[in-house]
Amino acid sequence: RRVHGGSQSNSLKMSLDVAQVPLWKADIMAQLASRNRMQTDSFRSLIDTYSAMQRKTKTLEERNNMLERESHVLRQSGGDFKKVTVLEEKISELQSELTGTYRSKAESVSTLLELNEQVKQLETRTAELTKELEAVRITLRDRESELHEKEGLLLAAEEARDSFQKELDHVRTQFESCEKKLREKEAENAAFLNQILHLKEEQANQLNEINNLYASVMRQQKANELFAKAAPAESLDDLDATGDWRESLRIVVPTKEKRKWVAHTGEVDAISFSEHTGVLVSGGADGLVKIWDVASGNERSTLRGFSQSVMCVSMSPLGDFLLACSNDTTARVWSMETGRIRHTFTGHTAKVYSGVFYHDASKVVTGSIDRSVKIWDLTKGYCIKTLSCFSACNTVALSAEDALIATGHLDGRLRIWSHRTGEAVEDIGDIHTQQITNVLYSPSGTYISTLSRDNSIRIVDTRTWSPVHTLRHPDFKNSLSWTQAAWSPDNQFIVAGSSDGALYYWNVAKAEVAKVVKPGTHTSAIPGVAWTHNGQYVASCDKAGAIVLWEAPSARDSVSGSSQTASLPSSMAASRRQ
């Protein structure tokens, strides 16, 4: 009872003093109160029972002692035996009851020990849980600290977001304003650009008219010069019915070597004469374009810009511009006066094998193995029309009026295109069994010649678009995809080089070989030939890098050639009638 009362008073005192002590002391007192509740209050009934048993045992012991004394007194005094027996039975009952009490006491002690052991285990578990609780509290405090930091960061981020949103709204407003101004400026610019284009188109048309007039005057002047150099005729009736001055020339086939020189470090793939400037232009596998003086054979200049072989060179009718095409998929136009590149055309996606100027020098047309033919405006500087082909294009040529474009292809077909519509007006097949490497209009424009890898040249009449002649020779071989041929200015002859280094001249009207310059001067295949516009020279180039200039052999041969030339128009007319 004292223990129970003391614990109650202690608990009450601790609870009363909690508010009067510091926090850490209050925590310790709370822990002690918790321990008392676990170790004292839980065993309150057991302790009360044990105390009652102790009191009962003590009472029974006192009563038992008193009865034993009474029994002893009775025995000594010789008292009533029956009474003594009764007392002994009572003593025996009390003894038995005392023994039971002891037994119960032992069991209570044993239970108490077990409960004490359980209390110790609970205390150990409580300590572990207390440590875990403390660790959890520490973690919780850390998490609360982190949470406060994160809340601070979140608050700062929200403030920054609000600030950025305000800036974004401001920038968006400015952007919308600028976009509106931009649309207004674009509209103004488009209107201004249309005005500029309209003015440029008017200027280009005026310039083209001037160029056409100038070209016409120069052609007439050149015609007069060449006509004056030609053999005199009694009257204008001596000219061909077409009235073309070229057919009044007396051409002697140039078969005598006048000059030979090494022009390029690699093969020479293309050559061309200028009609008015007295120069020869060559393009080679070294990517260079070289300009040579025909009279002296000296090099005038070298033009650079290509990264691969130059496959075609062509001069403008007045000799003021030079066109070159290359395997690097580009075509370039140079000014002959300044030697600088005027245009670089990059529209093709594969090797560009051929190109030629329009007769008014306002445009150029190029053909590529990418199966396209492109027309480029030299005033505007870009492609104005693309003709899509069914086969790789190896060569292009223009009619005298620039109205038609002739192209030769890998599939061996000759195609004729309208410059105005860009559509194919003729597709001529069955003239060659292999690819066409060169297409040329005759100087009079009446015929087209096609050179092919099947080692033949076909002559096609431009009025009926049908072949009228086939030029062959058993020893003539064409092994290249860009081999050129050339017409004589009087429409009488065609010259082409063979893969063995021989040079072949055909009489077109008779469809037979007129002259053969055997290999020796050239030691390799001849890709290109060119005939001067006055008929005086022929130039040829080979894969060894050499160029040879040929001239007429003698006056006697010239007379012979003149007689052949005179009979040719009637022969051609007879062939056409047949």
Mean pLDDT across all residues, rounded? Answer: 83
Strand content: 25-35%
**What is the oligomer described by this structure?**
single chain
Biggest beta sheet summary: 4 strands, antiparallel
Question: Which structural category fits the helices and strands?
Answer: alpha+beta
The shape, in one word, is rod-shaped
| Spatial strand sequence of the major β-sheet | 1-28-27-26
Low-pLDDT runs: 1-8, 230-245, 557-578
**Count of helices?**
5
Question: Characteristics of this structure?
Answer:
578 residues, alpha+beta, four-stranded antiparallel β-sheet, 41% helix, disordered N terminus, disordered C terminus
Write a structural description:
The chain has 578 residues and is α+β, with helices and mostly antiparallel strands. Helix content is 41%, strand content 27%. The protein has 5 helices and 28 strands. It has a 4-stranded antiparallel β-sheet with strand order 1-28-27-26, with no helix packed on it. Strand 11 and strand 12 (372-377) form a beta hairpin. Helix 1 packs antiparallel against helix 2 and helix 3 runs antiparallel to helix 4 (81-229). It starts with a helix and ends with a helix.
